[in-house]
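Researcher: If convenient, please comment on what follows.
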Amino acid sequence: MKKDLIKKNYNKKLKLLNHYNKKYYDESISEVSDDIYDNLKKEIIEFENKYSFLKSTKSPQLNVGYKPSKNFKKVVHRSPMLSLSNAFTEDDLINFEKKILNFLDKKKDFSIEYSAEPKIDGISASLIYKNGKFITGLSRGDGKEGEDITENLKTIKDIPNFITYKNFPTEIDIRGEVFIKNSDFKNLKNKFANPRNAASGSLRQKNPNDTKKIPLNFIAYTYGFEKGMEINKQSEFLKKLGDWGFKTNPLNKIIVGTKELMINYFEIEKKRESLDFDIDGIVYKINDFTLQKRLGNVANAPRWAIAHKFSSNKGVSKIIDIDIQVGRTGALTPVAKIKPTSISGVIVSNVTLHNEDEIYRKDIRIGDTVVVERAGDVIPHIVKVDLKLRNKNSSKFIFPKKCPSCGSNTIKEFNQITKKDDAVRRCPSEGYECEKVAIEKIKHFVSKDAFNIEGFGKKIVEKFWNLKLIKYPQDIFNLDYDRIEKMEGWGKQSVNNLKYSINERKKISLEKFIYSLGIRHIGMENAKLISNFLKTSKKFITILNKENINELQNIDGIGETQISSIKSFFSYRVNLEILKELNNILMVQDQKNPKKDGIFKDKTFMFTGKLDGISRAEAKSLIEQNSGTIISNVSKKLNYLIIGDKPTKRKILHAKELKVKILSQKELLQKLNKRS
């Protein structure tokens, strides 16, 4: 799939997800089924993981829930209320366990014990107890801060106001799910669209007396923080919750191995319709709390837990035509036009075919009857072709070898990692000589995650391009407003609004500035890594010369692919001129990294050799938790070289030459232990 279309679809998905979140969290309205919502989220995350340039600050991997409502007091969670990663297939579960074993540096035969619990489709809540008294109740909010809904939660009979149990923790944040039973929901006389809406809307009433009228339930399943609790396993904690007076899920099981998890999954799926509460999957947690703490979290989700969701939605349709779209990076993406069909209540008429290889692999032809899977994406994908219904006279689709925009011969680049040609065919233009590429580059420049110029959407970009008002990004800041004012549909006020929006965006962060340029393989996350390293736009321009650019190899996460892409991009003189002109026009802010106060503050680390009893990922995580920075090369900027078994001798010699301090794994762990 071409890069610009990927980005286009990605932004649409994010916008749609945010819309659903706003409706659900702010207005207690579920516009789509849980399945559609979860699949949309899955598709966003899959695209982010597949295409590094897509990372956004609004990513569901970085955010949880939705910002707290203005109707309630905001309270910061002492321990963030994290989201969960999702699994949809057995392969997803196998990969989940594989990552855990790799992180813990354990072999495949190491047995992991899981707590498996059906995931109730309700509203998460946090209950804070101090000396046995329920003092504060919070919604999830955005995971960092929630809404104070204490009085509403106190109306739920399943939530004890006082706990007198012996040895109850001095302080504890008990977390669980607020929901309404299906049997109770039937008696609400269509006041809410579904049970989840009923739970959300009732729990967030301004008047607790209104909440009290609704038969809400609460099931507890975890804790956020605790003081004075001596429990080592999730199963032990669930038993304690019962002792303390909380209800827990009766279908919870302790299971070893992914095969047994799958057996339990299908058993629960069969029982799903007979339950008196809605479930949308099963949550698997590592049972051992010690392992949970070692694994920690990644982004907004724990490494030690995953939600195994129930099936996605499919439909059948017929391919009418296949269009080739050209993206910002020159990638040619085929999109099938299908006979409009409804899948999970959504009309689908466009289906992504990903790339040339995908068409040939699945033997997709115009006129074919196909199975379409909608996983929340604006443009779903084809699962398979129904060959039994194929017209005998249908011919194979011939993918164009020339760019449909500029006519240039397209190319397939050789991938140095896979040692194969890339699946994506591209127009070789990286400058602004190809019209479609140029337009998509400017669309990217003004997009939400880049300059985010209000009132300067994609249609305006196309219109202004066709009218020759813009040709390059810097033209946006030098528009002929007098000419625009005379155009149909424009007036003085609308022109003033546009002018104001553009001027407001002349001040921009370095990472957004780098991202806005549209360099292949430099998404939001990589732009942030580069800006954190270079600090200023002046340094970014300086580093682009041949002698300095290899400095970027010192950034952990920036490799040969990214550096090669930057080199290729700025080998076009027009791109370098655009960069310099924009830097003169704009106020690009220096990157200011957050203050770090850990024991490794301002210190850089590098690993060589295999570590014993701990994976490199875990060691890296421990260093970063203590404010250290990981770099990829031995240089004068390196403070510590950590050596394991069979280290690279060349790296050790180079470190000694530069007088870099060399530590063994044992010495590193000793330093870490001193923190406590």
About this structure: Residues 604-673 form a domain with the Rossmann fold fold (CATH 3.40.50.10190).
